[in-house]
Specification:
Distance between the termini: 32 Å
Largest sheet: 5 strands, antiparallel
Structural class: alpha+beta
CATH topology of the largest domain: Alpha-Beta Plaits
Number of strands: 11
Number of domains: 2
Shape: globular
Number of helices: 3
Oligomer: single chain
């Protein structure tokens, strides 16, 4: 399987959040896209503004008119992004999108580390932090791109899938 990379998508100014929402909605409604389109981001930056003598921290768009998409580039994913309302195109020469380099991703605060975990599908794990702390479940899916594990936990007498960060899970012996 091809590796997912980060691509920059140009949008109409002010449409960044609408484009993100529309792409997220398309992914949620299309099961086959979920494995190829991993994440959509509108990079934000905390800025301190002074108004009437009062300091206030607000979030501003780091790159107005641009959205970042982490995906495997193929005809389907290209078509979905390119035909999303508010998108004017991918950043790159002609019609060929160019993925961000490791250095560019680091400067944006996106780190792609190789994480090793000591559990796999079928293993019983305990959640050690977060909302699901002290919950025990069985791993049903491991996603290295998102760095999450989906575990089945019992809630209200039913098995329920829950997505947990690798950092929050510990394997039980």
């Amino acid at each position: 399987m091809e590796e997912a990379k980060w691509y920059v998508v140009h949008t109409y100014s002010g449409y960044e959040n609408k484009v993100k929402a529309n792409i997220d909605k398309t992914i949620a409604n299309n099961e086959s896209l979920k494995k190829d389109m991993l994440e959509v981001r509108v990079p934000m930056l905390d800025v301190v503004e002074v108004k009437n003598g009062a300091k206030k921290t607000v979030q501003k768009k780091m790159f107005p008119g641009y959205v970042l998409v982490n995906m495997v580039m193929n005809d389907d994913t290209w078509y979905v992004v390119r035909n999303t309302r508010g998108v004017t195109g991918f950043v790159g020469p002609g019609s060929k999108p160019v993925p961000l380099t490791e250095a560019e991703m680091k400067s944006l605060g996106i780190h792609m580390e190789n994480v090793t975990i000591d559990f796999e599908e079928g293993d019983t794990v305990a959640v050690v932090s977060g909302v699901w702390k002290d919950t025990v479940g069985v791993v049903s899916k491991v996603d290295f791109n998102k760095q999450t594990a989906t575990i089945s936990v019992e809630m209200f007498g039913r098995e329920t899938p829950v997505e947990i960060s690798f950092a929050e899970v510990r394997k039980l012996n």
